[in-house]
Amino acid sequence: MRVSRPAARRRTDRRPQGAGFLIRRAHFFSAASAALLTFALAAPPAHAALPAGFASVDLEALTSTELRERIAHGATTVIVPIGGTEQNGAHMLLGKHNVRAHVLADRIADALGNAIVAPTIAYVPEGSIHPPAAHMKYTGTISIPDAVFEGLLESTARSFKQHGFRDVVFLGDHGGYQSDLTAVKDKLNREWAKDPSCRAHAPLEYYRITQTAYVAALKAHGVSDAEMGSHAGLADTALALAIDPSLVHADKLAGPYPAGVTGNPKRATAELGELGTQLVVETTVAAIRKETQAPR
What we know:
single chain, alpha/beta, Rossmann fold, disordered N terminus
């Protein structure tokens, strides 16, 4: 009986290939290896899972080296969302402004495509502490002096300039400190006039649109001025519902409403609030692009 030779023996018994074939095969594998290596170096590493509550554009969700690389590759705009910690009646959480400012800043950064979102500033001027005035009359509100607030914003912007950002954008979700934002922006731009590598911006469109076009849109949907109110009413509550329904206690919407609430939030819905959030994002993105693309 004939026994087959092992495969290795059979291969050695074959006629050897020509030298040209061997050289071409060596070149092929060398080129393929080089291509794979280049691809591995060029491909961005897979990012670890994001911390709860953060998006990929959030500075707090990045390492220092990741942020440095983002800036080097063109993410040179940093958005500083500013909220505030204040009473919102019995139906809406104290952190409403902070959550809203953060979420809207993330959406604006996504739309811009070259922006990073800084940590949200939650401590803002809310009125005199002693004696208590404005929202400070109600439990949970936190207030700081205007000078402290402005100093915080100034140092924040100078830090970002140091790290290579070219545009620092202040976005304020509360009406009470809009003039502070403008004052800080103007001061920084005077300070940086001889070094225009970085500029400060405070597009008031972010807040103004909620007092103009959003109001008009709500009226077109049958909402009255009395319902809208100026604080924690339907307009304010609907925006919160559109951002995160957990900001609102639905079982408290029908009242009674304690002092500090103006308006009637009973008919507030996320759908009505989305009229405002869409306007805020679209209008603010356009304003930031216009300002950051202006000649320096």
